[in-house]
Write a structure and sequence with these properties.
There is one protein chain. By secondary structure, the chain is mostly beta strands. The chain has one domain (about 20-95): Immunoglobulin-like (Sandwich). The chain is about 0% helix and about 45% strand. It has a three-stranded antiparallel beta sheet with strand order 1-2-5, with no helix packed on it. The chain is elongated and about 40 Å long.
Length: about 100
């Protein structure tokens, strides 16, 4: 008899992003992460934004990059249109 046990574990989420304007069409996004606890480590970060004022048929989060190396904790978002944006950062972990 074989038994498979799956354990759900979470990686600590990145901090709330700190956003600094670089130009009229770009911003620098910085975040921090807590030191690893347990056996999970961060592999990559995923950065997304959305225009909070846009009222189109396809509103939602736009992925800027979903393969930012774990060694980076900042990223410049370019080619933005003038507007008001929300930015979120997530991480992918591995055992």
């Amino acid at each position: 008899m074989y038994v498979c046990v799956c354990v759900a574990a979470r990686v600590a989420a990145p901090s709330r992003p700190d956003v600094t304007p670089v130009s009229d069409t770009s911003v620098m996004v910085r975040w921090t992460v807590a030191p690893p606890s347990g056996s999970l480590t961060i592999v990559t970060f995923k950065l997304q934004y959305r225009d909070v004022l846009e009222r189109t048929s396809t509103p939602g989060w736009q992925t800027v990059d979903d393969d930012i190396p774990a060694s980076h904790q900042s990223f410049e978002v370019t080619r933005l249109r003038p507007g008001t944006f929300r930015i979120q950062c997530a991480c992918l972990g591995s055992v």
